[in-house]
Write a structure and sequence with these properties.
globular, two-stranded antiparallel ribbon, two-stranded antiparallel sheet, alpha+beta, Arc Repressor Mutant, subunit A
């Protein structure tokens, strides 16, 4: 499964946070519930999602972690990232962190 079939990042929806396509359910909400001990089935039922939506959220997070790991090895001091409408961007140098929000 390709997570892009079920996860969308759109600046016009939920301030550009990753969401399940066709909903305003943020991927972070899925993970908050998983971290709280909810089962994937219970989350899907509570948010009216398909089990594949939960799996797509997991795949999205796995790719996000893998890209962050690869990026942190390539650019010294880069530990933060920004998600835009085209996918992932990790070229944020440590010197520019300051008070600048990551979503700008």
């Amino acid at each position: 499964m390709d997570w892009r079939e079920r996860i969308a990042v759109d600046r016009a929806i939920c301030h550009g946070r990753a969401c399940i396509k066709g909903t305003r359910v943020m991927v972070s909400a899925v993970f908050d519930n998983l971290a709280a001990g909810e089962t994937p089935e219970a989350i899907a039922a509570a948010y009216r999602l398909q089990p594949q939506d939960i799996q797509a959220a997991l795949l999205y997070a796995a790719e996000l972690c893998a890209r962050a790991h690869r990026s942190s090895r390539r650019w010294s001091g880069v530990m933060r990232f920004k998600v835009d409408e085209s996918g992932f961007s990790f070229r944020i140098p440590a010197a520019s962190w300051g008070a600048t929000p990551l979503d700008q």
